[in-house]
Design goal:
NADH Oxidase, binds iron/sulfur cluster, 20 helices
């Protein structure tokens, strides 16, 4: 069997900062069972919001052998992704989660995982493998916890005591026994509740995260109109949300990732809100080639920009907002523009909204109860 030190060294050689190995039972029994149970309960409560793709592959997430028959071990790899933040430019800009500032970690992690797999295949010809970087039906944090890469904090983030939470995970299932961590990482949250308190929408609780309340869910995963009552809480976030990580004490002294590797770009960390509102959705998408922000897509990012501009009171965004309301082909954007213009003080937007052929836009003609839009 390949020894732990060689595996660690190989993982580093292909670009990962940390590597741990968890033992896996194909049926998902043993240490994994409580994780599978948490997923079941999470789905039963509806905490996955509109992410039907999680429910659709729930059986695989709960039974690792359905993903890779005969799976015995999970290698869990960690890539730190938070570089020093590019300076905030002047003007009306939105806020982007740290993993969106530069290159897409999915591509970087997949390349590294493939090299690791090649090395393992050379030693174990015929080895069965499965690679997961985020989108696979794999509970990546559960394996990270058992592999002692970190512990799952109250924020539900996997936390490493030196590197904090700002890391992306990649998992490689293999159908041989590899030297595993003796036990899961100890929980070091202690009595801290900083993330629970700081979350502006109350999305975190002892049950984990309720995506129906999470800014990251609404700004990245949700397509269509964002419910009115939630829009003010989005603040200036236009892609993801880092609040529960920013307040976590384990991040305060954590080292930052190498900017030469991640190539953070000021216009991606701080997108110009008016430019996004004015551009067409396909152009916003095209400008984000190679960025994780493509997951949200140009139309959702422009929707988020309209909300952020309203939340920030950017009056200079009104003309562009009006153009969207009058002529954008996307009803989600027209609806959001109708609300944003009203929040920015232009009550006439309600008249235009009321005459729109789409009921989602017409719904935005209803008066906004207060300046911040909360009903
Ligand atoms: C769906 C998803 C989301 C959803 C739901 C998040 C959630 N907490 O479930 C949304 C869109 C909201 C989201 C947001 C974010 N995500 Co996300 N997301 C995922 C994804 C694809 C699946 C997660 C999942 O299965 N959720 C279902 C719940 C039930 O599982 P879970 O969150 O892992 O929860 C486990 C713990 O709660 C654990 N647990 C907690 N307490 C206890 C106690 C006991 C006793 C036990 C046994 C277990 C346990 O049990 C659960 C099962 O293991 C994973 C990738 C993957 N394939 O795993 C990335 C992933 C979790 N996301 C990631 C990131 C970076 C983010 C964001 C930081 C992005 C951002 N800046 O906006 C935020 C963070 C929000 C947060 N606080 O979690 C990283 C996390 C890296 C890390 N260090 O933890 C992952 C691993 C992607 C990756 N490959 O790097 N995400
Ligand atoms: S990502 Fe933001 S909204 Fe979601 S749980 Fe963390 S602090 Fe709350
Ligand atoms: S903020 Fe505190 S409670 Fe939340 S994950 Fe970090 S250490 Fe744990």
């Amino acid at each position: 069997m390949i020894d732990r030190e060689t595996l660690q060294a190989e993982a580093r050689r292909v670009g990962f900062e940390l590597m741990g190995v968890a033992p896996v039972s194909p049926t998902g029994d043993g240490w994994f069972a409580p994780h599978a149970e948490r997923l079941r309960a999470w789905l039963a409560r509806g905490d996955h919001a509109g992410m039907a793709w999680i429910a659709e592959r729930a059986a695989e997430r709960q039974v690792p052998g359905r993903v890779l028959p005969g799976v015995r071990s999970a290698l869990v790899l960690w890539l730190p992704h938070r570089t020093p933040a590019p300076p905030r430019p002047e003007g009306a800009v939105g806020r982007v989660a740290a993993y969106g500032w530069g290159r897409d970690y999915h591509n970087v992690a997949r390349k590294g995982l493939r090299k690791l797999r090649k090395m393992l295949l050379a030693r174990h010809p015929g080895l069965g493998t499965y690679l997961s970087v985020d989108t696979g039906p794999v509970l990546e944090r559960a394996f990270g916890d058992r592999a002692a890469v970190g512990w799952i904090g109250r924020s539900t983030m996997l936390i490493h005591p030196r590197l904090g939470t700002f890391g992306s995970l990649a998992v490689l299932f293999v159908d041989v026994d590899l030297p595993t961590a003796d036990e899961a990482h100890p929980d070091r949250c202690g009595t801290c509740t900083a993330c629970l308190v700081a979350c502006p929408t109350g999305a975190l609780s002892a049950d984990g995260l309720d995506a129906r309340k999470c800014i990251s869910y609404w700004t990245i995963e949700h397509r269509g109109v964002i419910p009115r009552a939630l829009r003010p809480a989005l603040g200036d976030w236009v892609f993801g949300c880092d609040i529960c990580q920013d307040v976590c004490p384990w991040n305060h002294d954590a080292p930052t990732a190498d900017p030469a590797r991640w190539q953070p770009r000021p216009e991606r960390a701080w997108p110009d809100l008016i430019a996004w509102i004015e551009a067409d959705s396909a152009a916003v998408d095209a400008a984000l080639l190679g960025s994780p922000m493509q997951r949200a897509g140009g139309a959702s990012l422009r929707r988020n920009a309209l909300i952020a501009a309203a939340n920030l009171g950017v009056l200079a965004a009104l003309p562009a907002t009006w153009r969207v309301l009058r002529s954008d082909p996307d009803p989600t954007l027209r609806a959001t523009a109708a609300w944003a213009a009203q929040v920015l003080g232009d009550a006439d937007a309600a008249v235009i909204a009321a005459a729109d052929p789409d009921p989602r836009v017409v719904a935005e003609a209803a008066p906004i109860a207060s300046r911040d839009g909360l009903e």
